[in-house]
Amino acid sequence: MNVFRIIYKFIRHFLTAQNTKGFGVHSPFMFQFIQNVLSERHYFYVFSEIEALRSELKRNKTIVSITDYGMGINREDSVSQIANKSLKSAKYGQLLFRIIRYFNAVNVLELGTSLGITTSYLASSSSKIKCISLEGCKQIADNAETNFKKLKLTNIELVVGNIDSTLEDVLSKTHKLDFIFIDANHNSEAVIRYFEMCLSKVHNDTIIILDDIYWSNDMEKAWKIIKDHPKVTSTVDIFQIGIVFFNPHLHKKHYKLYY
Fold it and tell me: Fewer beta carbons within 10 Å, N or C terminal of the chain?
């Protein structure tokens, strides 16, 4: 990730994104989504528990050996370094929670567990949720499992191994998916492959979230290809993440919004 490039992209996004809280958006569906999800700031009690755990992880100096299938580089990092550098912020974790809650998603898939903070947000809005999370690195997955136990989350199935190998098997055992969060290999070829593999399990109300869509030129390329996919009816770009809809009642339109 080039920091100066990200800053430049953010400034461009800030100057061109809509900030109307939904007013001026003609689609009733999208207006309601902006009003009731993107503009919602209600604080749920589980947020405090998850954020207390995040703070604990940021102080944890335990060294973890990382197997990174995406970058192709094995390295060592402390839990605190991972927590400080790699986890989605509270703002976006809580947004994912709200999206799942608003659409009553039950069958949830996450590609890229990391330490499980975002996973915990995905699984916390209802005990009816069945959250499957795929993580490549065994040591990181072990940490995530410990974190789920601390939060008393029993509705998460953690699948460990190279996602290139495990995703197909998980999908073969899944009837349908209501919500998919792709935050694994930041490579356009892999992202597009994962997206297309998941399409066999989407339905009209499925939401797919892509993380770090401006991470690199390559990730921007993946985001553009996905936006143009014939099955995609609308997208929302809030810079950090891209939100993909398949609702056939939506007109093909791409919204760039300030969040």
Answer: N
